[in-house]
Amino acid sequence: MIYPVLEKEQKIWKTQPEALIAGIDEAGRGPLAGPVVVGIVVIKHENQYIQEVRDSKTLSELQREKIFEKITKTASAWGYAMRDNQFIDERGIVHAVRESVVDAYYSLNPKPNLALIDGSYLRNFPFEYKSFDKGDRDIYCIAAASIIAKVIRDRLIVKLDSTYPEYGFAKHKGYGTMQHIEAIRKYGLSDVHRVSFCSRLIINK
After folding, report:
1. I need a labelling partner for 165 at 20 to 30 A (CA). Which of 9, 58, 142, 185 fits?
2. What's the half-sphere exposure (Cβ side, CA atoms, 13 Å) at 63?
3. DSSP readout, 62-75?
4. Which residue has the higher pLDDT, 205 or 20?
5. What does the pLDDT look like over 165-203, one tens digit per residue?
6. Maximum distance among all Cα pairs of the chain, rounded to whole angstroms
7. Distance between CA atoms of 177 and 64, rounded to whole angstroms?
8. Which of 101, 96, 94 has the alpha carbon at shortest distance from 115?
9. What would the pLDDT profile of 107-165 be if each residue is shown by its tens digit?
10. Is there a contact between 140 and 4 (Cβ–Cβ < 8 Å)?
């Protein structure tokens, strides 16, 4: 198991001790349904270091919920933004993530001095940032943001389960499991499905 460390943040604080550093990550880039959610967590040098923080994909749902509560209580600031399935169909997933990153950043006050973003494909933002591959694995504040994004998105998807019980959203969170694919082929697409992601499943049923 690889645990993220504060190496990148510490280097920044050596020259800018009062710097506010934001970690940014998304959840829901690949599912067949629901929104994509971008989480943001802002830390400063004196914030509590939460030892359990790591890439949200390596944690159980119960672990994420517990760590989520710690992050939201100890971070200097946190937030999220999202784009729904209709936006994803109309503009594409990369554009959806990119706009959510901008919204998440500008939702904060005061603004961070620097944002560390997971995903080197995400560029050209109107604020100071650095992008990294596997940032959620290696960088503490990005890993924290991954937990925020994942918990928020999962909670939203679970709520959809009562409206669309035939799809089993509470179990698979909108991802392309066999159960989910079979439900799409049986019942068709709901209002929260990404048509652009699901069209081949309907064609090949």
Report:
1. 58
2. 12
3. HHHHHHHHHHHHHS
4. 20
5. 999 999 999 999 999 999 999 999 999 999 999 987 654
6. 59
7. 21
8. 101
9. 998 899 999 999 888 888 999 999 999 999 999 999 999 999 999 999 999 999 999 99
10. yes
The pTM (predicted TM-score) of the whole model is 0.94
- CA trace torsion 173, 177, 179, 184 (10° rounding): 80
Residue 21's beta-bridge partner residues?
Answer: 43, 114
Q: How far apart are CA 101 and CA 6, in angstroms?
A: 22
Token pair listed for 47:
């914030």
d(CA 40, CA 104): 6
- Give the pairing of strands 114-118 and 129-132: parallel
CB neighbours of 12 closer than 8 A, spacing ≥ 6?
19, 21, 114
Q: Is 94:82 a contact under the CB 8 Å cutoff?
A: no
CA distances from 168 to 41, 92, 174, 184 (A): 30, 25, 8, 11
CA distance 111 to 20: 8
Cβ burial of 7 (10 Å; 0-12, 13-18, 19+) is exposed
The length of the chain, given as a count of residues: 205
Q: Could you tell me if residue 168 is left (phi over 0), alpha (psi between -120 and 50 degrees) or otherwise beta? A: left
> Which amino acid is residue 105, in one-letter code?
Y
